Amino acid sequence: MTVIVLSGPVGAGKSSLTAILSKYLGTKPFYESVDDNPVLPLFYKDPLKYTYLLQLFFLNTRFHSIKKALSDDNNVLDRSIYEDSLFFHMNADIGRANDLEVQTYDELLESMMKELERMPKRHPDLLVHINVSYETMISRIQKRGRSYEQLSFDPTLEDYYKRMLRYYEKWYDDYNYSPKMMIDGDHYDFMASESDRTEVLDQITQKLKQVGKLPKNWHAGEIATESIEFSS
Ligand SMILES: Nc1ncnc2c1ncn2[C@@H]1O[C@H](COP(=O)(O)OP(=O)(O)O)[C@@H](O)[C@H]1O
Ligand SMILES: Nc1nc2c(ncn2[C@H]2C[C@H](O)[C@@H](COP(=O)(O)O)O2)c(=O)[nH]1
């Protein structure tokens, strides 16, 4: 059984690579709750009011997903509980949560992480982080077109996204729950270019081989983007 978690800032390409990778490895994809998330649009309209509720919503869904992924067969997760704290503390640092909310959140997360330690499989086998520049991030956010994520919806999102990229640098350096690797999301267009897709999948399978976690009975094959079901 092999569990892979994807990480990276908004628009980096996590959901897209989750779909490609899970199809390639013949494993199950787990997606974040976005289009069916009732709190997300409220958060972008009024972050001060909805930061805490949104975080509890994500934390709850991520906890259930990682528990299921760690007890199921092979899986690929599009963002996981390991990034939850980055988002909450980033928002708290810009004044969107008070000290009591931070303390309560940290204690709750700690209890959840302790519960994961009791799972038969305690951690993922590999973290695949997609690194992108601010320019790439913005162009992908525009390409995807969720209205509330656009700079035209809220110009202060420029600072928010730039801060997110800085927090991710430290987050990736500190992450130590599993082996990890970084994909250059500026360089590889794994959506439109077949050779880029092949190269990225190759990098990931090499790393899985290196850590002894390539799923059993798996054979490399080509995958066409048309055959993949992307999440919306
Ligand atoms: N490597 C890439 N090259 C070009 N376009 C990409 C790449 N990765 C993702 N995209 C496009 O960028 C947008 C955001 O990708 P998505 O997978 O939803 O990002 P995330 O899940 O990290 O927020 C989508 O329109 C997707 O088609
Ligand atoms: N405040 C938070 N926002 C979050 C969190 N996780 C995701 N998000 C937002 C960011 C995007 O607008 C959207 C989906 O993220 P993608 O990176 O998949 O595009 O949800 C969080 O924990 N806190």
TrEMBL record:
Q: Which Pfam families match?
A: dNK (PF01712)
Name the source's superkingdom.
Answer: Bacteria
Gene Ontology MF terms: kinase activity
State the InterPro entries in the record. Answer: DCK/DGK, Deoxyribonucleoside_kinase, DNK_dom, P-loop_NTPase
- Residues in domain Deoxynucleoside kinase? 4-206
Keywords tagged on the record: Kinase, Transferase
Q: Which family is this protein grouped under?
A: Belongs to the DCK/DGK family.
From the Swiss-Prot or TrEMBL record, give the protein name. Answer: Deoxyguanosine kinase
Species, as recorded: Lactobacillus nasalidis
Output the lineage of the source organism: Bacteria, Bacillati, Bacillota, Bacilli, Lactobacillales
